[in-house]
Amino acid sequence: MSDKSKLQFDKNPNKWIEEAISKNHIKYYDYKCFTNIKKIKNNSFEKFYRANWKNSEQCFALKSFLNFDDVTVKEILFELELQHKIDFYNNIIRLYGITAKESKNDQLKKYLLVMEYVDGNSLQSYLKETFKNLTWEDKYKLAYQLTCIVSHLHDKGIVLGDLHSSNILVYQNTIKLTDLGLTKRIKELSEQKSSLLDIVPYIDPKKFVNSDDLVQPYSLNKKSDVYSIGMLLWEISSGQPPFKNKSFDADLITQILQEIYNWLLNNQDNSSNSIYLLGYLNFHGIGTNVNRQEAIKLYQKAVELENNAAKLDISYIYIYGNDDETNYNKAFEISKKLAEEEYPGGINRLGYCYDSGIGTEVNIQKAFELYQKAADLGNSNGINNLGWCYEKGIGTDVNMQKAFEFYQKAADLENLNGINNLGACYDCGTGTNINKQKAFELYLTAANLENDLAQYNLALMYENGNGIEKNINQAIYWYKKLLNKEMKMLKIN
């Protein structure tokens, strides 16, 4: 969707769609041109049809929603933006456009999504039917495709939050994701309740923990997707859904992480993705205690196998690690190589090296250019850093309006620094009008996702009563939370 021509939303969802069509944000297909329309699947809030286009052999999938309201329309348009961002990745079902079915009884048109049709089974069904005939090579290929897809999406700043074996298709031995979280978002926004029992084993256990530490519900993030991948790797290797025939109480959910870690530990192979994932779990203490030394060893092993995600993470350690871990020259060289391979995260990291003089001389013009390139490739950190450049005049002229716009884009991609920086814009009136309530909400969102700057900003708002009701207890809570993290890091280091 073009950034220069924003859609203007009103209370009529049909007008949103019509405006999107008129501005060529979404392609329109004439419903009369579809033939042989047959319903192939339905659930509590959507129906799927298979149809031919103009009596040809070409098939499309048509998807309708039982409640076609403003929530659904906004998420459809957002889904289209995400699809354009990843440039129609082959392992993700393509969303081509929209069609409308005239209804005599309803004032509103019945809109349907026009999607790529894949005559495949869900991963769960595929494993049930073919598992006995699958070799370890077949399982490895499925697992490898899955991890590559999610790694690619994460590099574009996209979090799925809804990975399970029922919404992943297998077609001609190729993994296909059915959407980029559209179904999850619509269900969450329209129902505002959880109906998740069928997919509990795949969901980050923190989603279910009732903790006094959380001021608002826990938001699924990249780590949550990594957790889901672990459960799917188990299912692919065993042929059984995780924790089959067991009730999903809180105690079971909290044990799942350990099960994933132990399985990976006892089933190591030479796959760079498996090695990287094990290192990631050790570094972040997922399913085990934090073990930086073991994590670094595993990262380095994955780096030797040319795993780009491991290269990016090890460069982070070389920059921000302990005294015996930091190596600015290595961080710069790794970032440079990743950038040469057009790896968006590496391009952004190289920009940061030039920005901060890490392993090279400071070159703010070069930093700006690299941030711009990473942003153009959809990297959320690059987008956020570009906003910082426009706010501070790094390699370009100060432009508060552009700073605000880039922070907004980064926040839309759930970049935590972007969310915090957008909050700061509303807090101080940077590129927008001051809105203390909006600033508070954004700080709170990022703070609950463990962003240090947001936690500090939130504590300041509570301490000073800046735009919100003064609350010293909440201020102390957030300051203590920051202090406890610092103490924990000192112990780990």
Give the helices and strands as they follow along the chain: HEEEEHEEEHHEEHHHHHHHHHHHHHHH
Rg of Cα set: 24 Å
Provide the residue-averaged pLDDT.
80
Please give the largest β-sheet: 6 strands, mixed
| Proper CATH architecture of the domain at 122-238 | Orthogonal Bundle
Instruction: Determine the fraction of residues in helical runs and give it as a percent range.
Output: 40-55%
Q: List low-pLDDT spans.
A: 1-11, 181-196, 209-217, 488-493
Count of individual helical segments? 19
The main sheet orders its strands as 1-5-6-4-3-2
**CATH hierarchy, class of the domain at 122-238:** Mainly Alpha
Describe the protein's architecture and organization.
One of its GO terms (molecular function) is protein kinase activity. It holds the Pfam family PK_Tyr_Ser-Thr. This is Protein kinase domain-containing protein. This protein is α+β, with helices and mostly antiparallel strands. Among the domains are: 13-117, Phosphorylase Kinase, domain 1 (2-Layer Sandwich); 122-238, Orthogonal Bundle (Transferase(Phosphotransferase), domain 1), CATH 1.10.510. It is built from 19 helices and nine strands. The chain has helices at residues 13-22, 70-85, 123-130, 136-155, 182-191, 222-238, 250-266, 272-284, 292-304, 308-320, 328-340, 344-356, 364-376, 380-392, 400-412, 416-428, 436-448, 452-464, 472-492; strands at 27-29, 34-42, 46-53, 59-65, 95-101, 110-116, 121-122, 168-171, 174-177. The strands form two sheets. The protein has a six-stranded mixed beta sheet, covered by helices on one side. A three-stranded antiparallel beta sheet has the order 7-8-9. Strand 3 (46-53) and strand 4 form a beta hairpin. Helix 1 runs parallel beside helix 2. The protein is globular.
